[in-house]
Amino acid sequence: MQIVKQYPIHKCGHAKHSISGTKCLQSMVGKSNSSRYIVATQDRELQDSLRNIPGVPIIYLHGKAPTLEAPSQASCKYAENVRKGLGMTEWEKETMRTLKEAAGLAENTEIKCKRKKRKKMKIAAHVKEALVTEVMKKQLEKNKIN
């Protein structure tokens, strides 16, 4: 109960003439959800109408567990439009490229592939010692012959 008391109370303005809870919540959320409400409801009609408004998270109960619904198509489209608006246009990219070339700051677009390091063979210590002694014997024999 302490947690609930921390949240502010928002008046809907429908005290004089009563309307249904669904219409009241829809009017509070509005067309853009400027107050950033998170709506928790089991009413399917209200959920369907709120899915058309971008940026309205919907919570419902699935059994005893509260479940946050995935972002609606309207929210995804809105986010994609915002993402496109924040990036540089093709004209701006081309202008940046030409200005960099003129200033001599253009980077080489060729990317060199890094070679993978060859894995070293792991040889047991006793085998390594045997190989070293064998090589040393061959070198001594060559030196004696010459």
TrEMBL record:
One of its GO terms (biological process) is rRNA processing. InterPro entries: Fcf1/UTP23 (IPR006984), PIN-like_dom_sf (IPR029060). The keyword rRNA processing applies. It is found in: Nucleus, Nucleolus. Pfam families: Fcf1 (PF04900). It comes from the Eukaryota. One of its GO terms (cellular component) is small-subunit processome. This is rRNA-processing protein UTP23 like protein. The lineage of its organism: Eukaryota, Metazoa, Ecdysozoa, Arthropoda, Hexapoda.
